[in-house]
Give the backbone structure.
Amino acid sequence: MIKKLLTFGLIFMVLFVLAALASAQQKGLDWNNPIKIGYLNPLTGPATLTTSLDLPGVRLAIEEVNAAGGVLGRPLTVIPRDDKLNPEHALREAKDLVVNEKVFWLHGVTSSGVARAISQYARDQKKIFAISVAKSEKLTGEWGHRYVFRSTNNVEMENIGIAKAAKEIFGPLKKIYNLSPDYEGGHAGWRTFFDSYKKLVPDATLVGEAWPKLGTQDFTPNLTAIMNSNAELMFTSFYQTDALTMIKQSIALGLDGKIAMSGVWWGMYAMCQKFNKDFYPKKTIGGSTYAFWGIDTAENKRFVENIKSKFGVYPEYAVNSYAFVKAMAKAINKVGALDTEKVINALEGAIMESPVGPVEIRACDHQALWPSYVGLIGEVPGWDFYASKKPIVIGREAYPTCEEIDKLRKK
Amino acid sequence: MNIIGREKLVFCAIFLAIFITLPFFVGGGWTSLIIEMFIMAIAATAANLMAGYGGMVSFGVAGFYGAGAYITALLITKAGFPFGVALVAGPVGASIIALPIGWFCVRRTAIYFSMLSLAFAQLMYVIVYTWYSFAGGDDGIVGIPIPAFLNSTLSYYYFTLAIMVICLIAMWLIVNSPFGKTIQALRENQERANFIGINIRRYQHAIFIISSFFLAVAGSLYCGFNQNVFADYMFWTKTFDIIIVYLLGGIYIFIGPTIGAIIYILANKIIIRYTEYWPIILGMMIVFITLFMPNGVAGFIWNRISTTKKQ
Amino acid sequence: MFELILGQFTSGLSVGMVFFLIAVGLSMVFGTLRVLNVAHASFYMLGAYLCYTITHFLGPSSGMFWIALILAPIGVAIFGGILELLVLRPIYKRELLYQLILTFGLILIIGDIVKLTWGVQFYQVNIPWPLLGTVSFLGTRLSYYHIFMIAMGPIILILIWGLLHKTRLGSVIRAVTYNRDMSSALGVNVSLVYTIVFMFASWLAGLGGTLMAPMASVFLGMDTTVTIECFIIIVIGGFGSTGGAFLGAIVFGLANSLGILVLPKQAIAFGFIAMAAVLIVRPWGLLGKPE
């Protein structure tokens, strides 16, 4: 019995050490008095890919900031924690980061539900929380407050952008079919799209809709229904694995190319990396937070190269986090102290320098006014994947005005 | 006081003294974590009333835990009830829900009981998850106000500690009462109990409701702690968390689940600092405990103490 | 309207068949070994990942899928066998609770093994030649691959039935299922039978994963998308019953896909309502045997 215990214990220890070594890059840097960023995002489970396309941006920014002398003479470090896409776990980690690790700000989060919980906590603790992925516009809108920032764009402006791009690229198509996921975000997204689209194409009508659940494995009945309807344009906010399943099945059914399609996030690199000459959705526009293949500046090329060579992935949300972390470092240095209130004041209205150009952190809602990019999916010369060609840039006019935000918050 | 031996009483007193003074030695972050341990201890001990004492493994414990949390949350946010009332109403409401659910569940045994309790809990989850306008749906309810005197980690710590002590004492009294002894007898030999004329179903139904009551206490406390509720609180993964905790600690000892709660949350916290591959480590811990320590850590220690005493 | 219903019908059937492949293995393991292996869906996931790796082994070519269809489930079966020998044997005599928790630990372990081996990316497997394309049927279009998947269900069902009722091994398995101690007393190597059944169940789950891969995507966490559903199916069909798993899978698949036409928001509740109803009224399931 004792022998069994000992052997098992030994195996256990060895595996533990191996696992720890394997993930040695996740350990905090061993410097004496660093300024810490508490990073929360899924490190396990299906959304882990998103984290791997975001965290490198934080790390690259940290590298550059430290190389340039750090913040207040101290190095910047990041402590990544797994939020498991779950508010309970996220809060537990957030508390540990804030109270034990004494991070200066919290950064990250993909799920809007989790973001809401952390946002509430940040407000109670008077700590800055920078949302790096979560999309719900409410986070900086009606649920917004002084301590929450969003370092990336939001889904509301993305949907407005898709509506605009759909009209520009496809012309004023009138018969719309909606195939969106059944959760609050899916419903809100559709409403935004359709309202904006109707402003541009007043006699647009909804000829049919379906609301499959997130994680649906089989869209063929819906796709067949679309084929049998007289829809001209299909709208969907399904994403990543669900969307790829949908595209696959659409191609298999022969629907692909017959009607126009618009996928809110089908232009994101996470999806486009799967597109190539033999597999891509035809006559489809996709939106992206960062269509790096279509931005032809030297600075952008350098950024993409840096991320790729150091981290082995192409950047997606990384560009947003990168710019924000650098902006934070700049703000802290300007203020001259780790004073949250003063740093917030310094961030409001600050212009971030980014590989896509200058981006303002708007004072009234702390939303970084990032553009979004929408284009027709197809061959992009110079890259080995298919993505949105010559994407249209949707700018800050797609965001709600400060007056509208004010009204929402007063309700 | 013959309901608890002198030794155990001293032991409890020491434990209590430690927990009362602990916040002064550790940082605020740890205080918060220990509150979670207290809440998990209540939930796991409650679930163990069914499992360890009653021999009924429920896969639906998260449902009642979450029900307590949601009832409390909804009463405060939708009906403006004061926190104290809502906190009591949570477990009471959950017990009412447990009445019909328990009635159906106890009419089945073993795996069928487990599956039925799972089905009911998942139904509760679906109701909450899809009812956006009333229960917040997949967005949950956030920013639930609690009274000012509870608004600091320290004060909530003592509040939770007090409630945990009360709950554990209550549950201890229950399992050591004639009622409790009957429940344990039912676990051992249902046929004989039937023979003596005991209405098995009635007893099992009662312990189901009692267990759900205390699970909901934990849930309501958690709602006040985080000042939010999410549908995840009712999901089957939460049930497995609770089951792992009481198994880890030991199901045949009253204090087992409490010990399990301490170990589980501590291990979680420590592992996650060093590696993103915590699932495989946790998984191996679970396999190890199941294979080599079936009576849990508390059971293991108790066995060692007992054997040395016998010498 | 009719086309929509027909489309949902075939969709429900084909997804149901994959569920059948996973659920039947789970049911067999419970029926014969008396163990509820909640990590069973992890074998499904493993099968899908192996399918991806084998299919892309010599470069992305869809002909390799057929090789994957043969090799991936075998790989999963071998993995299952090793697991059974090392980890499951000690707990056969234990109570349900321990089996549950141990196999739950396996979900965590296998999940991280997959993550360590294949990373966080999600993968695509293409529909293989010659199953590309669609056929017109009663006004709607059906893809050949769907039809293939629907066909696999009954084929495997017949295969299992044939194995259990027409081979000597099958009668040994049935004997052990019926009465373990008696079989042992009659000289049957019960441990070996257990291992074989477990490996076969793993093979089935791996096959399910391999078949599903071209339809959808291969990603971390795909095991949790089917775990609870499998419980529902074997409860409805009856623990230990192969025909029950088949029936339960069809009922579940159809209830899901047709249910969303009627009550889209509440559709996910149907499975649990059916599960509760069966447990309350007829706990041994539609085709199970009362104990």
Summary: The domain at 2-281 of chain C is CATH 1.10.3470 (ABC transporter involved in vitamin B12 uptake, BtuC).
